[in-house]
């Protein structure tokens, strides 16, 4: 999976849930720069990162997972 696609989805869901990058990094127990690197696609999230992120956002890892169907429907889904 493209690292940048993971990051874009994480950022979109974070914003949808009303977290700032600082708040979300604090909630996850990571530095803001670490979270920023993930969101910009400079760092690949580990499975553990993904599980923690999904848990904080109250969604499943599968919902975070970028794929053709998710990319096609991403805008529509995030607007609701």
UniProtKB/TrEMBL annotation:
Protein origin, superkingdom: Bacteria
UniProt entry keywords in alphabetical sequence: DNA-binding
GO molecular function, one term: DNA binding
InterPro entries on file: Cro/C1-type_HTH (IPR001387), Lambda_DNA-bd_dom_sf (IPR010982)
Domain HTH cro/C1-type: 10-64
PANTHER family registered for this protein in UniProt: HTH-TYPE TRANSCRIPTIONAL REGULATOR XRE, TRACRIPTIONAL REGULATORY PROTEIN-RELATED-RELATED
Protein name: Transcriptional regulator, XRE family
Organism (species): Gracilibacillus kekensis
């Amino acid at each position: 999976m493209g690292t940048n696609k993971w990051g874009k989805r994480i950022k979109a869901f974070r914003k949808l849930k009303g977290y700032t990058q600082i708040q979300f990094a604090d909630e996850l127990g990571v530095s803001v720069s670490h979270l920023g690197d993930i969101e910009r696609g400079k760092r690949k999230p580990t499975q553990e990162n993904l599980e923690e992120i999904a848990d904080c956002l109250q969604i499943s890892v599968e919902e975070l997972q970028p794929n053709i169907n998710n990319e096609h429907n991403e805008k529509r889904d995030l607007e609701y």
